[in-house]
Amino acid sequence: MKKTLLIALSLLLILAVVVIAKSNQSQKTTLVKIERKSINPTQKGKKKTLEERALYDEARNLYEYYRQVNPNTGVISKADKNLELKNSKRSLLKKDMNSAKIPETAYSNRGPSNLGGRTRAIVVDRIDATGNTLIAGGVSGGVFRTTDGGSSWTKVSANDEIHNVTTIVQDPRSGFEDTWYYGTGEGLGNSASKSGAFYFGQGIWQSTNGGLTWTQMPSTSSTQEVFNSRFDTVYNLAIHPITGDLFAAINGRVSRFNGTIWSTEVTNPGGSINTSFATDVTITSTGRVYAAFSGTLDASIEGVWTSSTGNSTTGAWSRINASDFTPTGRVVLALAPSNQDKLYTLFVNGNSSDCDTTPALEADLWMWDQSTTTYTDYSSKLPDETGCSNGNDPFAVQGGYDLVVSIKPDDEDFVIIGGTNAYKIADIAVDATFTRIGGYATAAGYTQYANHHPDIHALVFSPFNSNILFSGTDGGVHATSDITAATVAWSSLNNNYQTYQFYHVSIDPDSGSDFVIGGAQDNGTTVGGTSIGASSTTSHIPLLSGDGVSVAIPNYTGCGISFFGGSQNGTLYRYCQNTSGYTEITPRMSTMPDVLYPSQFVTYYHVDPDNTNAIYYASEGTLLRSTDGANVTQDTWTSLSDTNTAFGHADYFQAFSTTRGVYNALTSYLLMGGDEGHIYRLDDPQNAANISTAIDITPPTATIGFPSIVTGLAIHPTNNDIVLATYSNYGTESIFLTTNATNATPTWTLVERNLSAHSIRSAAITEVAGQTLYFVGTARGLYSTSDPTTTDWVREAPTEIGFALVSSLSYRPSDNHLLVGTHGNGMYETVITDNPLNVKDVNNISANMSLYPNPVENEINLKFTGNYGKVSNYMITNISGQSVLHGEHLSSNKIDVTSLQTGIYFVKVKINDKIGTKKFIKI
User: Fold this and answer.
1) Is Signal set as a keyword in this record (predicted)?
2) 663: helix, coil or strand?
3) Cβ contacts of residue 721 below 8 Å, gap of 6+?
């Protein structure tokens, strides 16, 4: 059984480095100079100071920004993203291929089904009196629905869209409860800065069938050339309980939709859009509307506003700030359900809980009483426990990234707050201070509270039981059945709530093993597989905390289970189960033994999967090597110098790849891809004395200069001359193929074809029975082709992976297993077969197959155009690709689906040698 160890984050100070883009007359050059920021580790074992946390968040933002920004314009344009999405929807699926014989592959979910990702929205369905129906949203995972209290979830947002969910609301009016809305686009804390990075949204979406299916509200769609729509970041939604008007708290504005048009109710007078101009809105049961606006961005509007109706023509808006009510950042609101004259206001105050200065509470808490039109300041009751712990205690909110307040439905004085941690106070008028109930376990360190996760975004009481509280955090969805208990106990509801954001994944190189590993954003390193003690093939065991980074499974002799994992900015560990356990091997400078080599935010290194004694570590642009991975220490790495010294361009390494098979000094090589667009080949890498012996084999038309990010370098498993190289930036040529990679000057062919608009994130080449298949992971799903020089790319796994960002691919040639890591939809695995199938032929009868009724409640009928006979067998899968129902010999071509939960499903039938697949909705 795998040992579990939570390792404190190695925390960091950012050093800004301005890099001048190099030019190469034979290659494309950047037209806009973009600053590169480099991060160096500091304060090991400590939580971040306020300044460091801001820079830490920026580093996470920049990681994604650098991979998307168009280097010719300096922005991530909406036009680029719209074109990418449009082309993705037009791309052929394998079932639509007319000519190319591409192996048909099935994708199995590899989880984690028991762990969740960043969740900002949870709502308990008012219709289900049991309180077991909930809808929740992941910031990059989509919308999920449960009807059994979180024992299982069904994804209900479509896989052909990206849904960065930030808020969900149900219509409270009798007879209208089937109407729901969710808002998209995260404006604080992650990839939400730098001209519009990955977590900007696509407006507001509506459901009229209880959250089973959703459509975008056209009036909130943004098609501008840059991210300049206020609906690109939606902070909160609320529905007026009398008029049914929808209120949206968006960038610096609160707007109202009356069913026909949007009206601006309160807005920043200058009209400028700032992605961090956070807003909030809440409405009483009698229709009074409150709105909140961040501080410091516009003094004329910051703070809290109210209107008796929310409609400026019938109820004028007025500001209700106290004289010393001075927010310096995000402001969030919560009404007391049992006394809606009471409005609690929690806001960022500009203080720092940094223990190295004078630590202070990072937020204030005030309560407005509408009946007396007065405020009460409860800020002194916010938690400040014994001692000090950076970012943990006193009350810390990471600049408003995590900030929430909630009131117990049956007690107007029972208040719950969330920042980095969750706290409660049973009687705010009498009790001295809040007590900790979630996040980190204590103020003394960074071990997590039992069955809970830090970074609190949602605290939602059940409307049917005032003691039940649900939390949405960076670790998914959790619940407590008794918020009044002296020690609050939590249960994880992350059961098929698949929202994990992987940066890197790796599969065990040993044939037949189901051992997999992944490094995830803000959720550290997890491992999966029944062979290492996981309860199922979709369950994962969390091992290392922090932000996950590169991962590898070396299978060292005598270790039992072994792997490499780490955390942001360079920290690296080797795990050997039977001997040393965890050993830190973060490279340390020999000339300065107390100084670690600098590394990037998402630490990158590569373990040769077939010669696992060899490890290559990216210390920014310096290549470090060990040829004794089983025993390497912090001080036994060899530095092979850097790209700037050797080649005159300061590429920071973003991708490595090594030739497959037994190492051969004459034929083995290492490929290295940088962030200035260069690709280097280092022959005999285990023995090379210096990186200067590497050969620059960059494709002649690749964009050169920072940022031009090489994201994938795939070497054919049996032919070292075939290499697939990918770049991620919009506005650049992105996919290249060479068939003479071992030449001094390889010849490259541009093979983007129908993916020219895509951001390409990963690459793999597989071979089965002499047939080669090429894969690329993109910001909009996974694609393959049998020959990219002649055949367009086709989309893989549309019902499993969908349009999730495919961040990492790991191939095992010994049994042809391919592991797919996504940023928001977990990981999937497939076996590449040698069975070419052109499903456009007469054996595919999907086009001649229909289902009714659809949506269906109890029994679904299968109808076929043509005389095919009876169904010999069928299988029903959920939207995650898991089989949930199967059977044989349908004499009446009817299937009883009563046992299925509500959600979206696919039925695949076989009639003799013919196959058909259709989607249906279970209600």
Assistant:
1) yes
2) coil
3) 738, 739, 740, 741, 742
Question: So what's the pLDDT on residue 193?
Answer: 40
Provide the CA 648 distance to its chain's centre, in angstroms: 35
Place of tokens 């690296």: 572
Q: How far is CA 70 from CA 204, 464, 759, 890, in A?
A: 27, 50, 10, 54
Long-range contacts of 271-277 (CB under 8 A, 24+ apart): 273/228, 273/229, 273/230, 275/187, 275/192, 275/193, 275/196, 275/200, 275/227, 275/232, 275/233, 275/251, 276/187, 276/188, 276/192, 276/193, 277/187, 277/251, 277/252
List of long-range contacts for 28-32, beta carbons under 8 Å, 24+ apart: 28/701, 28/702, 28/703, 28/704, 28/732, 28/733, 29/703, 29/704, 29/705, 30/71, 30/72, 30/703, 30/704, 30/705, 30/706, 30/707, 30/708, 31/71, 31/72, 31/73, 32/71, 32/72, 32/73, 32/74
Q: What is the CB-side half-sphere exposure of residue 623 using CA atoms within 13 A?
A: 34
Give per-residue pLDDT as tens, 170-193: 999 999 999 999 999 888 765 434
Q: Give dist(CA 771, CA 717) in Å, integer.
A: 12
Q: Residue 657 class from Cβ within 10 Å (0-12 exposed, 13-18 middle, 19+ buried)?
A: buried
The angle subtended at Cα 804 by Cα 800 and Cα 805, nearest 5°, is 135
Q: Which residues, in sequence order, are CB contacts of 719 under 8 Å at separation 6+? A: none
For residue 594, the Cα-to-chain-centroid distance in whole angstroms is: 35
CA atoms within 13 A on the CB side of 141: 38
For residue 813, CA distances in Å to 529, 716, 724, 762, 809 come to: 19, 10, 16, 17, 13
Q: What letter represents residue 700's amino acid?
A: P
Strand order in the sheet with 303-307: 279-283, 289-293, 303-307, 318-319
Radius of gyration of the chain (CA): 27
How far apart, in Å, do the first and last CA atoms of the chain sit?
41
State the burial class of residue 828 (Cβ atoms within 10 Å of its Cβ: 0-12, 13-18, 19+): buried
The residue count for the chain: 923
Look-up of token digits 């049994």: 815
* Cα(703)–Cα(525) distance, integer angstroms: 33
- The whole-angstrom separation of Cα 363 and Cα 347 is 5
Quote the tokens at residue 24.
């190469």
| Amino acid identity, position 454 | P
What residues have CB less than 8 Å from 770, skipping those under 6 apart?
Answer: none
DSSP structure class, residue 644: H
- CB count, 10 Å around CB of 776? 30
**CA gap 593, 841 in Å, rounded:** 66
Contacts of 904 (CB under 8 A, 6+ apart): 154, 155, 156, 212, 213, 878, 879, 919, 920, 921, 922
Please tell me whether the overall predicted TM-score, pTM, comes out greater than 0.90 for this model: no
Beta bridge partners of 31: none
- Closest to 798 in 3D by CA, of 914, 919, 903, 713: 919
Lowest mean pLDDT among 144-153, 305-314, 387-396, 905-914: 905-914
User: Which amino acid belongs to residue 366?
Assistant: W
Max CA distance (Å), the chain = 85
Nearest to 418 by CA among 403, 433, 407, 406: 403
The amino acid at residue 382 is L
| Matching residue, tokens 């190189």 | 509
Q: 458 has which bridge partners?
A: 472
Structure tokens at 637: 């790495």
705: phi > 0 → left, psi -120 to 50 → alpha, else beta; which? Answer: left
Determine what percent of the chain is predicted with pLDDT higher than 70: 88
**Does residue 41 have a pLDDT over 50?**
no
